[in-house]
Design a protein that fits this description.
Layout (H helix, E strand, L loop, with lengths): L1 H12 L3 E5 L5 E4 L3 H4 L4 H4 L13 H8 L19 E2 L6 E2 L14 E9 L8 E13 L15 E10 L5 H9 L1 E5 L5 E4 L1 H7 L3 H6 L12 H14 L1 E10 L5 E13 L2 E11 L2 H10 L27 H4 L12 H9 L7 H6 L7
Antiparallel strand pairs: 1-2, 1-7, 3-4, 5-6, 6-7, 8-9, 8-12, 10-11, 11-12
Length: 362
């Protein structure tokens, strides 16, 4: 336990994260601190292709550094593999026998290069330049087998510490300590929340998932604004900065500044990552005054499955004309939920989420 605690402390003090990549380009291990620099959770990147995170122009350089001789072979399809080597799914990846590889203490196995990684926290280019410094070492415990069933020998893998090229400023360090992240389905249903988010919002991950759609946590006066940015994110991959109010467990509203991004797997959108920074009420109020008040779409027609509503909602615009103030003529209670279900409103839709909110919190 002491050794594990020391390791965690060292990783937190390190200006970067640890990365272990196999010769095939699969991320065998990443320290949890990758989330502080790229925005991806540790479990989201492990056993995934590292090339999905690297800028297309830097992929050949990274592939070159994975090879012990800085010269990865490109075996044309249909040709037999060189003697002593077996083909894998990737034609450029080969399996070497131990006597064909240099010893681990060979100085030529040291690596020091720069690549641009996809960064969910970056609001400009979407990529962060990282310096990867380490060496190629034998990766044991793979237990991979060849086509004939024999166990393959351990292969060299890249063990590196990834650090940003530009050192963070004091302001960035302070801001980073306040940032929390949540993970959602494509319809914004919560899936996970990091430790800081649990402290700030007060919910456990189970409580977040039990509430259904994530729009049930969004202030009724901010739902259309957030939904508009949600639609933009589904079309472009990023929402841009979005300032809105989240409901905490103690029924208080917390202003946050968020950036929402799509995360792709095999070229298809898989889930949403929301990076959020708490704001004081004065900051939130300033953003609210600058917000355009036009309605991007109506509840009656909606947009995409998330906002599906087959019937109009009488009196629904009144909730927004009051700009978040409680409506005296209508209670957002269980009876509204039952009535909305009878009217054919999907409780997971934007309209259903607002109807399930409790007026008391406003």
């Amino acid at each position: 336990d002491c050794g594990l605690y020391l390791l965690i402390s060292l990783l937190q003090a390190l200006n970067g994260f640890v990365l272990v990549v196999t010769s095939e380009g699969l991320i065998f291990y990443s320290s949890h601190t990758i989330q502080d620099y790229l925005g991806f959770h540790q479990t989201d990147v492990m056993h995934q292709s590292v090339f999905e995170l690297i800028h297309a122009e830097d992929q050949p350089e990274f592939r070159r550094n994975l090879h012990w001789a800085l010269d990865p072979p490109c075996t044309p399809e249909g040709e037999p593999s060189p003697a002593g080597k077996s083909r894998l799914l990737d034609p450029s990846v080969v399996i070497y026998k131990p006597d064909q590889l240099p010893p681990e203490n060979y100085s030529f196995l040291e690596r020091n290069f720069v690549c641009h990684f996809c960064c969910l926290l970056d609001n400009s280019s979407g990529f962060l330049a990282l310096n990867l410094q380490g060496r190629l070492k034998f990766l044991h415990g793979q237990n991979k087998r060849s086509e004939d069933g024999s166990v393959l020998p351990p292969q060299l893998a890249l063990f590196a510490i990834s650090t940003p090229l530009q050192s963070p400023s004091i302001l960035q360090i302070r801001t980073k300590n306040m940032i929390f992240r949540t993970k959602h389905k494509l319809d914004f249903t919560p899936l996970a929340c990091d430790a800081k988010g649990k402290v700030i919002l007060g919910y456990t991950e189970a409580e977040l998932r039990m509430r259904g759609t994530g729009y049930q946590f969004v202030h009724v006066a901010d739902t259309l604004y957030c939904a508009e940015n949600h639609v933009r994110m589904m079309k472009t991959g990023e929402s841009g900065l979005t300032v809105f109010r989240l409901l905490t467990k103690d029924n208080r509203w917390k202003w946050v500044q968020a950036n929402v991004r799509l995360v792709y797997k095999n070229g298809k959108p898989e889930y949403i990552v929301v990076t959020q920074r708490p704001l004081v009420d004065e900051e939130g109020g300033e953003h609210l005054q600058k917000r355009p008040m036009h309605l991007p779409f109506t509840f009656a027609t909606g947009e995409a499955l998330l906002y599906q509503s087959t019937h109009p909602l009488p009196g629904f615009p009144d909730l927004f004309q009051s700009k978040g103030k409680p409506s005296k003529s209508k209670k957002l209670s269980c009876s509204n939920v039952e009535r909305s279900q009878k009217n054919g409103i999907d409780p997971r839709s934007l309209a259903g989420a607002v109807m399930r909110q409790d007026e008391v919190v406003y």
